Amino acid sequence: MDLAIIKTGGKQYLVKKGDKIKVEKITAKIGDSIKFDTLLTADSTKGQIELGKPGLASKAEGKVIDQKKAKKISVMKYKSKTRYHRNVGHRQPYSLVEIEKI
User: Is 79 domain-assigned?
Assistant: First the structure.
């Protein structure tokens, strides 16, 4: 089984071929192919694990399926006895990526 740990957007993801993952927004259009250069660990079909120090020379490839925003979260600030309250909403943008090749 081909497994790999990739790093993108300051986060690490354990992926295999065919996985669909949500990553921090990537500046690519829907349908574009992208390469994840920072490959930290890879497991080949032979069962041997390659460790990168800090990364491996090989790359993982994926395809951008969608660009969306996550569900809205509400952030409430409140200070008692001063009549101060503030309510702010936030929707984090993300990219849905399908892993095609490791």
Answer: no
Examine residue 88 and state whether it is found in any structural domain, yes or no: no
Phi, psi of 28 (to 5 degrees): -145, 155
Q: Which domain holds residue 10?
A: 3-66+96-101
For 53, how many CA atoms within 13 A lie in the half-sphere containing its CB?
0
Q: How far is CA 33 from CA 46, 47, 53, 101, in A?
A: 27, 28, 26, 11
Structural domains of the chain, count: 1
This prediction's pTM: 0.78
**pLDDT tens digits, one per residue of 21-48:** 999 999 999 999 999 887 777 776 667 7
